[in-house]
Structure of Putative flavoprotein:
Amino acid sequence: MDTILKITDGIYYVGVNDRDTHLFENMWPLPKGVTYNSYIIKDEKNVLIDTVKISKVNAFIEKIYDILDGGKLDYLVINHMEPDHSGAIETIMHEFPEMKIVGNKKTFEFLKALYDIEDNLYEIKDGDEIDLGKHKLKFFLTPMVHWPETMMTYEITDKIIFTGDAFGGFGSLDGGVFDDEVDIEYYENEIRRYYSNIVGKFGPMVQRAMKKVGGLDIEIVAPTHGPVWRSNPGRILELYDKWSKYETEEGVVIVYGTMYGNTEKMADYIARCLADEGIKNIRVMNSSNTHESYIINEIWRFKGVILGTNTYNNDIFPPMEKVIINLAHKGIKNRVFGVFGTYGWSGGGVKGIVEYINKNKWEMVADPVEVQFSAKEESYEKLRELAKAMAKRIKEN
Ligand SMILES: [Fe+2]
Ligand SMILES: [Fe+2]
């Protein structure tokens, strides 16, 4: 079957789609699947770059044999040890017992700890090169993007950088593999959801990595998930640069928890007031039925965040608290916050959110607005004041 996908002369795509897994890392929804990308360089020495999750090993091996066409693998480069990429290493080693595994010191520590593998290792240091014949690989250690062993591999002849999880995102590749073959807007949104939820906490390390490879002449960006960027590699580098600097656009995300709609009514009123102030990008999101990864994705985009909750057991409504805990985990910076909410008798919801805000040293644009059961005339005025303060603050940026 002719399914060989060539990237350049001698460099091939051997990634696989996973449309079976519901939750990436058993946490992040995959409504349209995900890919585990892998690549082969055929030369005097043949190289496989990264592997795939073990559940997809059969399809993967088949592709490898198709491309090698009787040849063998000399090297396996491991840019990242997370099991969605390292899962098939043992199988590949059995298929090609003479193959050397290329990684750094940390890679090999994890290889031993995860799979008890310690033979046939070829340790590289930052900046080392391996000559394959026509092609030549150069390795750049990029720790904590998003694991300590993560590295990138640059192919000097064809100017391709294999970046591991960096620049990758959710979504299977349904036919199209390259950025110019797919609905790139869909993938950009899913790459930001991946970035913000999985890599986002490590913004400074992403910046360090980008500076390290920033001087290279890059024609193709080849990550381990999502499309391969051959037409506009500058676009994904630019987006990543912006996200890892916590840069924002003008807009507000209002996230709320509600049981009977009273807190939701306040959220809608704030949203209307923001529109009156000329804010166009407004997202109103229900924490009970929206997975927090989508909420965090929107917050990664916009400057303003308004958090609202009802009170539940004298505290924040649990679905809403889950969002805030996740947001705190990410170490989000450069955002401005507003708070509103309801209580029945003793309160605690709004107080709980304010505690999170203070603990994380997030900036609040106005005093919180809290009402008993449902908003009345005077509280609507306060909500409008909150929206005005938010609009003014985000326009300063
Ligand atoms: Fe990863
Ligand atoms: Fe990954």
